[in-house]
Amino acid sequence: MKPSTQAQRSVTFILQPQIQTIAPRPRRGRSTLNMEKKVYETFNSDEVTDEMLEEASKLFSENYGVWGEHAAQLMGKFAKAGSRVRLSKERLRNEYLPSGISSYVRVSVNGHLAGNAFSCRWSVDGRTICWITQLVVHRAYRERGLAVGLLNETRLDGNDIYGLMSSHPAACLAALKAFGHSFNTVSLEFMKKYAESIMKVSPVTYVRDAKLRGSLFDSKDTNGLVSSVDTGFFVDHEEPLEALALVRESMEWPLGELLDGHEFILILQARRRSRSRSSSAPSGTSLTET
Ligand SMILES: CC(C)(COP(=O)(O)OP(=O)(O)OC[C@H]1O[C@@H](n2cnc3c(N)ncnc32)[C@H](O)[C@@H]1OP(=O)(O)O)[C@@H](O)C(=O)NCCC(=O)NCCS
């Protein structure tokens, strides 16, 4: 502001101290919420009760998303456009939590289930793959780091490789952060080379059946996909596309476009906190970076 030469200068003393709290501005559409008591719990698949899965099923069915415009036509009448995607507790157990090799992590905020993550482990060439088979955070608790927290809890020293397929860029960003990466440290070459051999022996049917798509896996693929899978899952993409546009405002997004019926795929080599990077990849196995 241009100072006036004519105006008399005066100083006002305020006797009552005025206190103003400076807090980070909430992101667009984000309400303020009391996140006081956050509790993370981890269970092996065999400790997960039907009651817990009932709650997880409700969380998913109320918060995951809605079917896309062409879902009914391509998947069956059950997938009516605009209606909520649902998952029963039986499907959660049978398809997302294979017995003996899976984990369930949940987070509650002030006693309410706010999010959960399912993961399944298997071996390829002596290396342990940990695949995030499902991740969902309650709408009211999003963008507060809960997805990162859930995946952080899934992180185990014995895991060598982490995998995730998701249409939501935030799920990919959460995985990067939780597993000690950024897009600068992700090896697309590693994904290109080993995605197929890792996925084809997965005990999780939808991972095994997913078709790798994008220029990373097929140089002739020119429709904008880079690291994608065709899962034939026609969930509405309005929300993830909005998130993608927002993410692209602040960073290079290396996984390419998102098409209907497709999801992004991310495969990360575990980064040990206490050991050097090279010691995390045992020599003599074929799943090592070149
Ligand atoms: C994807 C999902 C699990 C993210 O949960 P969340 O608790 O909001 O995620 P976090 O707060 O931990 O955020 C993780 C990262 O994504 C970013 N992010 C979260 N939501 C975002 C959005 N809508 N737009 C842009 N970025 C977003 C965060 O800023 C953070 O990035 P940063 O670490 O670089 O700051 C949640 O949106 C969700 O349940 N979506 C519906 C279900 C789904 O798509 N699940 C994935 C299937 S595997």
Structure overview:
It contains 8 helices and 8 strands, in the order βαααβββαβαααββαβ. The protein is an alpha+beta fold and 290 residues long. The protein has one domain (38-280): Aminopeptidase (3-Layer(aba) Sandwich).
What's this entry about, in short?
This protein is α+β, with helices and mostly antiparallel strands and 290 residues long. It has helices at residues 50-63, 71-75, 89-96, 146-154, 169-178, 188-199, 205-209, 238-250; strands at residues 38-44, 102-109, 112-124, 127-137, 161-166, 211-213, 228-230, 262-269.
Order of helices and strands: EHHHEEEHEHHHEEHE
Taking Cα atoms only, what radius of gyration do you get, to the nearest Å?
Answer: 23 Å
Give the name of the CATH architecture. 3-Layer(aba) Sandwich
* N-to-C CA distance: 59 Å
Structural class: alpha+beta
Look at the structure and name the CATH superfamily: Gcn5-related N-acetyltransferase (GNAT)
The oligomeric state is single chain
Ligand inventory reads:
coenzyme A
Helix percentage: 25-40%
What would the average pLDDT be, to the nearest integer?
Answer: 88
Structure summary, number of beta strands? 8
- Specify the overall morphology: globular
Number of domain units: 1
Low-confidence segments: 1-8, 17-26, 275-285
Strand coverage percent: 15-25%
Largest sheet: 8 strands, mixed
- The top-level CATH class is Alpha Beta
* Largest beta sheet: strand ordering: 1-2-3-4-5-8-7-6
- Total of helices: 8
In the CATH hierarchy, the third-tier topology is known as Aminopeptidase
InterPro entries: Acyl_CoA_acyltransferase
Protein name: N-acetyltransferase domain-containing protein
Organism: Patellaria atrata CBS 101060
